[in-house]
Design brief:
Blueprint lengths: L9 H14 L3 H18 L10 H15 L9 H6 L2
Helix pairs in contact: 1-2
Length: 86
């Protein structure tokens, strides 16, 4: 979960408070409601954002994949035990 802190102008806060009053929401819940509605519309349109990874991250990923294919990795079934043994 991600927390977001917003600074609103008096006018923005008043508008959100006005809508919130109609829904029985306070300002933070109203803002969350509008974000949820916008997110639902984007998902309905089938628009999924694509984030390009950096060249450095891609290079490291490809190196890790090559090491895995070469058998240089260790299968971990118990993460707690694995980290205790490091």
């Amino acid at each position: 979960m991600t927390k977001v802190q917003l600074t609103l102008t008096d006018q923005e806060a008043a508008i959100l408070a006005g809508y919130g009053t109609q829904l029985g929401y306070n300002v933070p819940k109203t803002a969350k409601f509008f974000i949820a509605q916008a997110t639902a519309q984007i998902l309905k349109q089938g628009i999924t954002p694509v984030y390009e990874m950096s060249e450095k991250t891609e290079r490291k990923g490809l190196e890790a994949l090559a090491e895995h294919r070469a058998g240089k990795t260790t299968k971990v079934t118990d993460a707690k035990q694995f980290f205790e043994e490091l």
